[in-house]
Structure formats: C-alpha cells, structure tokens
C-alpha cells in the first residue's frame, strides 16, 4: 500500500498546480452540493417545524362572521376524519393601507386578532426587547407576526401606521410573535383596539381543524358546507378552505427557486470535473508511458499502477472534499440566513451531518472510481510498448492541415493542426465548456431576468398588474365606463375583468376550489403569459395555472369539468400559466365564464397609466372626475367641513362607506332632519367601489426574494467563470508539460513565446466555439425548465450573443494567460536535457 | 573574411546547489563568415554552452555577443527568437523533429516562421529533400517511421531552408551510425563549399576534419585555434595527422 501512495504522492508533487486546481474544483462541487442539499434538508423541515412550533391549525375554513353559526361546529365534531378543531375570530380588510416611514401608502393585507383569539389560533408567545413597563405604557401596542417582520423592516418601539379610507390608526410595535406564514400580516392588538376596529372591518370566523390525511381537507370542507347549507337553508357565502398542502406549497416556493438554481450549478460543475478528470488521466498515462513501462519492468503490477493513479485522485478529492466541507458549512449558513430572512423563522444552524458525509463519500467515491476505471487502461500497455512510448503515441495517420497549403498565417494553421491532432481532448474540452457555458448563459438569463428588480413580478405574477385596479359599484356598466376612462389622455388602456378573489369555480373531481380570472381578450393583457399553449379565445376554452395542472393531472389539450353554484361545464385547456400570486386560478374569457355563471358582468377595471403618468395622478384623476370611491367616502371631510350640514353629509358618507364595504350593500339613501332642514343624499353617483394595487403588495412581499435570486445568479456567473478558468488552467498546464519538447524545438526555430502562446490559445478555440454554440442553445432550452417556476423568461438574444462573445474572449484570455508558462521554457535547458 | 559573430568577455555560469559554476570565462572570440568552425574539447569544457550563447539560444551571464553590428546579448527572449528565425539554422544531436508532424510539415514549420508560403518555397523544400536523399514517398511520413540518419537529414533541410547566415550544429552525428553520420557530414561539407558559415560542436575527430577551423576549449576558455584548408582540397591522411597533432598538443 505504501508504495502505491508513494507513487501517487510523487505524481501529485510533479503536477502540483494541476492537482491544486483540480482540488479547488472538487472543493467547489462539495461546497455547492453539500451546502445546498443540507440547507434544503433543513429548509424542507421548516414548514412542519413552524406548524409544530406555532401549534397552528393545519387546515382552516374561513366564514364571514354573519354566515357563521356555532352549531355548524357539530358537523366537524361528528366527522371521523377530523382529529381536532377550534374556532377563532379575526377582523380583516382588503382596503387597509400601510403608511411607510417616508409617508407613502401601500396595500396592506391584515388580520387583526386579540391575544385570546390568537391563542385559539395557535400559540401566542410574544417576544420583545422592551420591558413590560414600556409595553404597558403604550397606548396602542401591537404584536407583529415575526414572519412578516423583514418585509416591513420594523423593530420594537416603531410606529405602525395604517389607513382605512379617511381614518388613520397608529399603533406601536410592542414585539413579535411566531405565527404561521400567510400572505396577510397577522397583528395581535388589545381587546379595546379590536373592539374599536371591529365595526369598521370585516369579521370572520375561522374554523381550524386537523386531519391525519391532508388530502381529506377538501372533502371535509365540502361536506361541511353542504351540512351548513342544509341547516341554514342556503349556502353560506364567501367561504373557503386553506389546506395544509396549500400553505406548505406557498411557504416553500420562494426557497425552491434558490435551491434549484444552486443544485443545477453544482451538478454542472461536477459534470465538468468528471469529464476533466477522465481526460486528464488519459493524457497523464500517455505522458508517463515510459515511466509506466519502467515501473512494470521493475515488477510493479498494472493493478498497482492503476491503484496509484486512483490513490492520487483519491488524495486530491479528499483534500478537495475536506476544503469543500468547510465551504459547504459557510454556504449552508448563507442559505439558511436567506431562508430565515425570507420566511421569518429560525432554522437549525447545524447542517445535517449525515447528508454532508453522504455527499462527501459520493464525491470521493465517484472521483476515485472514475480515476481507477480510466487508469485501468495501463494494463493494456506491456513494458516494451511503454518503452517505445506506446504504439498509440506514434503518428501514422493522416496529416491534418498540411502546411504546404498555408495561405496566410502559419500560427493559425499550426493552431488548427494542433486542434485536429487532439480529437479526444477536444471532445472533453467541448463537453466541459458546453456545460460551463450553460451555467454562464443560464445564470445570465436568470440574472438579467431578476435584475429587472421588482419589474420581474410583472412577468411571474400570473395576474394583471395594472397601474390601478378599480372595483365598480353594482349597476355600473363596466365596458362603457372602461371606454370612457380609456379616452382620457392620462390613461393608456383599460381592460374589463372580474377577478381578485371574488369569483370562484370548483374542480369537482379533485375538490379544488380555484379563483377565476376573466378577460375579454387576453392578447391585450400584459402580465399573463402562457408557458405553453395559447390564450383562451372561445367560450369553451380556459387556461390553468401550472399548479392546477399538476393537481388535476390535466395538460394543454385536455378537457376539464368545472362547477360554479351547481352549474357544471366542460372546458378545453388551451394553455398553462405560472402564477406566483394564486396557484389555483382558472383563466376564462367573458363568454366562457358566463357559461358557468350566467349572471356574470365585469365589475373590475384594470387601468394602465399612460407613459410618464404615475399612480397618484390616476388616483387624483379618478377622484376629481368621479368623486370619492365608496371605500373613501367621508375621507378628509370630517374636520374640513365648516358648516353643520357639511359635517352631517361627511358623517353620512362615512357610514355609507362602511356599510357598503362590510355588508355588501349596493345602494343607499339617507335623510337627516336637523331642525327645519332635511339633509338627504344617496350613493347613486358613486361608480367606484374601491381601488387597489396588487403590484404594491407584491413588491413588499417579494422584494427580498427577487434581490436574493438576482445576487445568487450573478454569483453563479462568477463561479462558472472560475470553473472555466480552472479547467483551462489545468488543460494548459498539462498541454505545455506534454508539449514542452515540441515548444522548445519551435522556440529554437525562431518562434517567439507570444506566437506559441497564441497558437496554443487558438488551438482550443474551435472546440470552445462549438461548445459555446451548443451550450447557449441548451441553456435557452433549459430556460424553459425554469418557466414552470418563474414564468415565461424573456430572452434578450443580442445580449446573449454578447455573453457568448465574452465567454469566447474569456476562454481565449484564460488560455493565453495560462500559456504564459511557455515563456519559462528555455531552448537551452531543453537541448541540454 | 568578414566576422559574422563576435564575443567580448563572454561569461556563462550556472548556479548548482547554491554554488556558481563558471562554464565560459571572459571569452573573446570571432567567428568568420563562410568558415566551417568546429568547436572541440573534453566533456564539460563548455562547448555546447558556447554554441548556444553564440546562437542566441541562451543569454550570457556577463559579456557581449555581437552579430555583425547588433549586440544580440542585449536582446529580449522574443527578439532573440526573431534573430534566430532570420539568421540561424540549427542541427541537433537528438535531431528534435516534431513527432506529430510529417517530414514535409517539419520543414515547413521552420520555413513559414521566417517567410511566406509560395510555390517557390515548396519547390525549394522538395529540391532540398531530394538533394539530401529523402525520397518523395517519405515526405508524408512521420519521424518515427524514419531511420535516425533520415531524420537528421530532414533536420538539416529544416535548418537550411531559410538560408541562414550561420548554421549551428551540436554533435550532428552523435546519435547516428557511421554510415549515416558520413552522409550527414557530406551534406555539411557541400553546404560549406557553397559558402554556408557553419559552427559545429563535436568531440569526434572524423567530424572535425570537415571543418576549416578548429577551436579547442578547455575550462571555458579557447586554448587552441587551428586553421585547415577546406575539406577535400588536401590529402585526407595528412589532414587527419595534423589535426591529431594539434589536438594532442591541446592535451585531448
């Protein structure tokens, strides 16, 4: 054994630099694979851990308070599939706005609970850096859900200002508490504040329940609603169930992007290393063939020589894996840090040792076995053949690019000649460069995609993100109003729709409840992109989200039966859409949706501002031309009104606003007699119920993720560049060593070092050029793999071509730089060997 | 005859385990045009070191080497390479053909570094190959398919294809059998007769006989300088005796 390791160590000493570079590549693999896979392991545990830690309900049925009846709970009690359940209450509002520290307002989905209600919803263990006395001194303390903390950059003692119509509510952050992750921010407030807000907001009863089989949740919900309908004599409205699997899916989506990218990069590097090792061993055997012959003549068996090669790579891989293990722990910490920042929950700081060892072992074993397999070629070389430098080393074949046909540059010709003489090496190089090109181009595509910053949300939302979305008052003629708005110079386009969680359809066979997005003409939409197929055009056509496709097992071209209010219709799926906002969405045409819901009329307008017109201008324009929105009635009037009548009118507007929003009242009139005066009014002039901006909310929730991915993809471009340069360094190092004599001879003939460096660099360019073309084509195809995750990625072909040129220049530069070793070859030293 | 190469206080030393070994010591020497200069001496006397210093293959430690009016000892490595391609030809003991190239390409590699490809160049290569006895069917063969003598003849064609001002040869027959060695020496003699300046290192008396001037080197200094009439113009036995006597005197 000793002699085998002695031979290996001698070989490593002889190729110090190459061994070091190879070790670095293996370390990089170990780091990426070890870091990402151990992080993934713990991140995947994050959701169950969060559910266990917060003791939150796995499934929750949401019912408007006025629909809920305590006796409904008995249906769950009687259901054998339900292991536990409880009801808690919360107040919520879709129109609440968060006022940022710099005074800007943004959509803020919020659920208010009291401490007691939160205890019914799960655990409530507030954490705060403030003392009890400090908290007690606060007028309106609020405990903020920890998982949303990073999105709003809040800390204890900070004010939290929220607005609802004309009213502003200012709380003080008393601390944080762990609550399960949800899109809406959960806030725990005092009983007194809850009582004050309750009349203004929508109250809901939430029935939390657990079931051993998560897939039963839909069926349980359906049975529950059916029982409620029988009891109440009508189907309760606006009820929905949020299942454990939906929550888990939404929770894991963000980190899924990042981990997927890292794992792909690690695989790319490992493939490059494997190809490199194979090619290097073969060239090493060719180079050392005489020494192999001598060893065989001395009595070494071919197995021992093969083992010494395997041992050499084992030692290099061992060193690489050890170094990579440290790197993987660092990467693990970085990824866990990202996960914690994104999800707002602490993750175990210790990577899974078992998985780390497994990856360590797999890399070590793969490299060693590969080396051994390749090194077994030695057994085919008897000593005599080895002494003669191996019959395969002799050139008998066709001479490629004969110099007598040289037209212009002899260096280019010699480079081509060298290229043609090294077919095997070219294939390895082409494979390695193709793989790394994929890494670079893919990183570039993703980097430029996510580099658009938050604009990327527009591509991946799966829903229209217009400048402002307005909900119309019942009775308002949507298409006519849209036409009127579109004629204004400040407005570029208006689309009629009926979306945003107000329309639902069911997939009866799978018990899936989905949101319906409805547009007349999808070709006019700007943020809905089919990842395959096309937009629905006829009344029997729909598109599904990718998630819906996976859940229903239906693809483009398949048919699916949908149900709404007992009406079932069959539709043809024309395409699939990636939707970040709501994974369960069905896209209908207006006529298509009217098939299943005949009373449907568009009640949402998507308004797109003209170039250079901002959101505030549109708001002012709408207020000026169409008066206050129902949601904002009375806004800013209470204090401004100077006369008694104005104050009465303002107060009446506020009451109308609250009733229209909370009770769904569509038309109101009022009359107030004050002395001899009758002050009257009605809501008939109000055309806009409320306006909202989905993009605003997404910006808040997604900015961290988008920025992280943008940084990571740039990092991977750098890693891919390091891999390419290390591989080219190894290649040049071994090439120069192998051709040292030839290079010396050429120097003696008068070739300068620079000319020889150019020749060597040009020699690698044909396979590199081919590899870049193949790599780019493959990476463009691979981009489609990401489409399912991040939507339709737009490709900037000129920019990709520029990247290709840069890759070529980089490869040439690396090769030229590493070929600089030629300068150290002196003719004299060679001649006197 | 004009001086083609000149050295001034040429020194060359090597570091060996921290110790400086002085191979060439303050050497002043002139190589004349159209001379066939043979450098002789015992092993380790500095013959090859001197040859490589003179040819710009290596740089002196101290002193100067002049090629005409140009001080080549002050050149950079790349300048020396250009100097070699324009002015020098080399024939080595180990031949040093490029194994991955055919006979023809080996010669073209040397030719095209100094001149552009042309039908005249191709004709010249073909003619030289014929002249040294390399038949056309061998032109597409690789060095490992030729005998040592054939390889060396190809090496000579490669060395002279650019019509160098001076041809350097380091023990050109050292690795050949006597018949092949004689063939190679005949080529050198013919080249010299046509006016080619040659500097050759050898420790073989028969090879040295081909020269017109013999320099004897001992411990890095020229201790003897012996002139001979051109080869073939005098009695060979007498020529050998005289040279032998000179070498005996030098203590060879």
Structural class of chain A: alpha+beta
Q: How many beta-strand segments of chain A? A: 24
- The assigned CATH architecture of chain B is 3-Layer(aba) Sandwich
Number of strands of chain B: 10
The helix content of chain A, as a percent range, equals 40-55%
CA-based shape of chain B? globular
Strand line-up in the sheet with most strands of chain B: 6-7-8-3-9-10
CATH topology of chain B: Rossmann fold
Radius of gyration of chain A, CA atoms, in whole angstroms: 34 Å
- Please report which band the strand proportion of chain A falls in: under 5%, 5-15%, 15-25%, 25-35%, 35-45% or over 45%: 15-25%
Uncertain residue segments of chain B: none
Number of domains of chain B: 1
Strand content of chain B: 25-35%
- The residue ranges of chain A in which pLDDT falls below 50 over 5 or more consecutive positions are none
Number of helices of chain B: 8
How would you describe the shape of chain A?
elongated
Helix and strand arrangement:
The complex is a heterodimer of chains A (about 850) and B (about 250).
Chain A: H1 2-14, H2 16-54, E1 59-64, H3 73-78, E2 84-93, E3 97-99, E4 105-107, E5 110-114, H4 115-121, H5 132-136, E6 141-145, H6 149-152, E7 159-164, E8 167-177, E9 185-189, H7 191-197, E10 202-210, H8 217-232, E11 240-242, H9 244-287, H10 289-297, H11 302-343, H12 353-375, H13 383-387, H14 410-420, H15 423-450, H16 456-460, E12 468-472, H17 478-486, E13 491-497, E14 504-507, E15 512-519, E16 530-533, E17 541-545, H18 546-552, E18 559-564, E19 567-577, E20 585-589, H19 590-596, E21 604-609, H20 615-626, H21 644-663, E22 669-674, E23 677-682, E24 688-692, H22 694-738, H23 740-749, H24 753-790, H25 797-818, H26 827-831
Parallel strand pairs in A: 5-9, 6-8, 15-20, 17-19
Antiparallel strand pairs in A: 1-10, 1-11, 2-5, 2-10, 3-4, 3-7, 6-9, 7-8, 12-21, 12-24, 13-21, 14-15, 16-19, 17-20, 18-19, 22-23
Helix pairs in contact in A: 1-11, 2-9, 2-11, 2-12, 2-22, 9-11, 9-12, 9-15, 9-22, 11-12, 14-24, 15-22, 15-24, 15-25, 22-25, 24-25
Chain B: E1 3-16, E2 19-32, E3 36-41, H1 47-54, E4 62-67, E5 70-71, H2 77-87, E6 88-91, H3 103-112, H4 119-131, H5 148-160, E7 166-170, H6 178-193, E8 197-201, H7 205-208, E9 213-218, E10 221-227, H8 236-249
Parallel strand pairs in B: 3-8, 3-9, 6-7, 7-8
Antiparallel strand pairs in B: 1-2, 1-4, 4-5, 9-10
Helix pairs in contact in B: 3-4, 3-5, 5-6
